[in-house]
């Protein structure tokens, strides 16, 4: 299981981002966004956040959460959160996301135009999208609110 995850400070971070910096940012696009049900998992570790977007697509699953895939040419809406206590926070989040998701490195753009490298949880099996419904505009919060 450890081989699925890219660890902070690893060669993969340097190769992908071109930097030795510790990657303390996470892009959240679904239930961990502000006001959503799983935000409490990261709330105590967030030092700041910014609205952002990235390329890809998200799918709504019947169990009440979305899944991200880098495939497609859509735009996914979310936020970047800066985290403290990375080992404990990512340990908790990796366990929460389980085998269905893998933490990968992705470039995102904040609403003020800044481009940042962040972690993001993506579907471990991209074929799983056939079990979900494409969220056309890439905004989980809007989609979930309209379902209620």
Model description:
By secondary structure, this protein is an alpha+beta fold. The protein has a single domain, classed as Gamma-glutamyl cyclotransferase-like (Hypothetical upf0131 protein ytfp). Helix content is 18%, strand content 36%. The protein is built from three helices and eight strands. The protein has helices spanning 11-17, 86-97, 140-147, and strands spanning 25-28, 46-55, 57-61, 65-69, 75-83, 101-110, 115-123, 133-134. The protein has a five-stranded antiparallel β-sheet. Strand 3 and strand 4 (65-69) form a beta hairpin. The N and C termini lie far apart (36 Å). Residues 1-11 have low confidence and may be disordered.
| Tally of helical runs | 3
Uncertain runs are 1-11
Q: Average pLDDT value? A: 87
Distance between the termini: 36 Å
* Widest β-sheet, arrangement of strands: 1-5-2-6-7
- CATH fold type: Hypothetical upf0131 protein ytfp
Total tally of structural domains: 1
Share of helical residues: 10-25%
Radius of gyration: 14 Å
Query: What is the CATH top level name?
Result: Alpha Beta
Largest sheet, strands/sense/barrel: 5 strands, antiparallel
- By DSSP, the count of extended strands is 8
> Which percent range describes the beta-strand content?
35-45%
**CATH homologous superfamily identity:** Gamma-glutamyl cyclotransferase-like
What is the molecular shape?
globular
Q: Sketch the topology as an H/E string, one letter per element.
A: HEEEEEHEEEH
Classify the secondary structure makeup into a structural class: alpha+beta
CATH architecture: Roll
